[in-house]
Amino acid sequence: MLTDEIRKARHKLVLDHFQDEVRQDWDDVLSTFPHPHYELIPTMQVHDGDTAVRGYYHDSRVAFPDQDHEIIAFRHSDDAVIAEFWLLGTHRGPLGAIPPTGSRFRVRMTAYFIFDTDENGDENLVCERIYFDSLTMLKQLIGGLNMRNPKNWLLAAQCLKGLVAMSGDKPDPTLVDTTPPAFAD
């Protein structure tokens, strides 16, 4: 059962995690996990372990160096803090195969910060699982191009080519090969 003390400790950890991400203090962000693990549901990607998560941080901040958030709400469950927030930033570098458009985005997201208790009874953040509508983000990034300006036509074509190239990425099997829970009568 979730106690008030555990709820407050989790809440603080998640707030610290968010603040450290905005400051781009990756050592502090990673210290919130015993083993860093991110699951990005819209792209079906998993970043597991220190090196993979640091790579994710690097790539996302190359694409959006000013990435920030506006928290909407926190909700608590027995094993998670669910954060609802706006993610925002400016597309200044490549996002995978999509070249930078210079457009701003603001996308509503949900992140599940999943906790587990270890053998010593300590609470640990074991996963950040992120959900968002990638089409909303892409519409803002590509839709921000002024198509009346012929200089942007080539960039728009490169963005579409990048989207097509990324659409062939295989999903992480841990996100696809799931087992339904067994519910008690």
Automatic annotation (TrEMBL):
Which example biological process does GO assign this protein?
A: polyketide metabolic process
Q: What is this protein called?
A: Ester cyclase
- Top-level division of the source organism's lineage: Bacteria
SUPFAM superfamilies the UniProt entry points to: NTF2-like (SSF54427)
Instruction: Offer one Pfam family short name for this entry.
Output: SnoaL
Q: Which residues form a coiled coil?
A: none
